[in-house]
Specification:
This protein is α+β, with helices and mostly antiparallel strands. Helices cover about 35% and strands about 25% of the residues. It is built from four helices and six strands. A six-stranded antiparallel beta sheet has the order 1-2-3-4-6-5, with helices on one face. A hairpin with a 2-residue loop joins β2 and β3. The longest helix is centred in the last third of the chain and has 16 residues. The chain is globular.
Length: about 130
Amino acid sequence: MDLPPQTAALKQVLDAMPGAVGAPMASSRGSEPLVLIYKIMGKMFAILSVRGEQFVILKCDPFRAEMLRESYSGVGHRSHLDPRFWISVALDADVPANEIKELVSHSRDQVAATLTRKQREELASLGA
């Protein structure tokens, strides 16, 4: 899979996260994946577009999500997920790369906080 530089860099960040598992999801008509869905302990925390537009969908604290939408034109919403808790970040817009990496960690932390104690302990044993 030949990815644009920003997408490839973010994919490396996501793949390196302890406990993160990325699975491809294709459209019903195509065989090439449209996105990679990243999960920890079976719970989704990121959706990375690998075809077409460069974006990532992340879980986010509602207050922070609103602040980000006001601060960056590259932060919005683009899915069936609840817009209060999920944001879409355009990788080729005005959001700095280090801010995107921070948002990925924030998304993972938001999902990790919803895990059971046993799941959190298992995730911690993976080096998270």
